């Protein structure tokens, strides 16, 4: 399985950005995917997760109501729509993949087996 993330950039506070993560390989039936982020000097933190089929999602409180995780099956691609961006959203964003959902959503990085490279999001004030 390979994950290729893209879509990061430099934006002003209040702007929107959409990240993409193309998946190569693996099966989809029990797939769960997530987005994590890591700011300089900080630990990697959970952002959002979704079941590939079924529509179940989970969000970190810090992004709930501003970010939306989704996927496009035909393109085998995961998205993260980020609205009303804040300077504290500045980080490298990583997509990840695992098999199977857990209650409340898998929120620990150790729960994911596959990772994409990071895409950098910088939000200026």
What does this structure look like?
This protein is mainly beta and 125 residues long. The protein is built from no helices and eleven strands. The radius of gyration is 13 Å and the shape is globular.
Estimate the mean pLDDT confidence: 97
Separate helix tally: 0
Strand content: over 45%
User: Which class do the helix and strand fractions yield?
Assistant: mainly beta
Give the low-pLDDT segments: none
Order of SSEs? EEEEEEEEEEE
Over the alpha carbons, how many angstroms does the gyration radius reach? 13 Å
Q: Which term fits the overall shape?
A: globular
- Biggest β-sheet description: 7 strands, mixed
N-C termini distance = 37 Å
How many DSSP-defined strands?
11
Helix content: under 10%
Could you state the oligomeric state of the chains shown? single chain
What structural keywords apply?
single chain, 125 residues, mainly beta, 7-stranded mixed β-sheet, 4-stranded antiparallel β-sheet, 11 strands, 51% strand, globular
Task: Set out the fold topology.
Layout: E1 2-6, E2 9-12, E3 17-24, E4 31-38, E5 45-51, E6 57-59, E7 67-72, E8 77-82, E9 91-99, E10 114-115, E11 119-124
Parallel strand pairs: 2-11
Antiparallel strand pairs: 1-3, 3-8, 4-5, 4-9, 5-6, 7-8, 9-10, 9-11
């Amino acid at each position: 399985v390979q994950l290729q993330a893209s879509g990061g950039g430099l934006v002003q506070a209040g702007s929107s950005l959409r990240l993409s993560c193309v998946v190569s390989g693996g099966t989809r039936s029990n797939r769960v995917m997530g987005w994590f982020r890591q700011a300089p000097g900080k630990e990697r933190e959970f952002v959002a997760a979704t079941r590939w089929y079924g529509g179940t999602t989970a969000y970190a409180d810090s992004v709930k109501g501003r970010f939306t995780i989704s996927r496009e099956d035909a393109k085998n691609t995961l998205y993260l729509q980020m609205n009303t961006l804040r300077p504290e959203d500045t980080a490298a964003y990583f997509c990840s993949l695992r098999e199977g959902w857990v209650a409340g959503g898998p929120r620990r990085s150790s729960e994911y087996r596959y990772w994409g490279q990071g895409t950098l999001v910088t939000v200026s004030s």
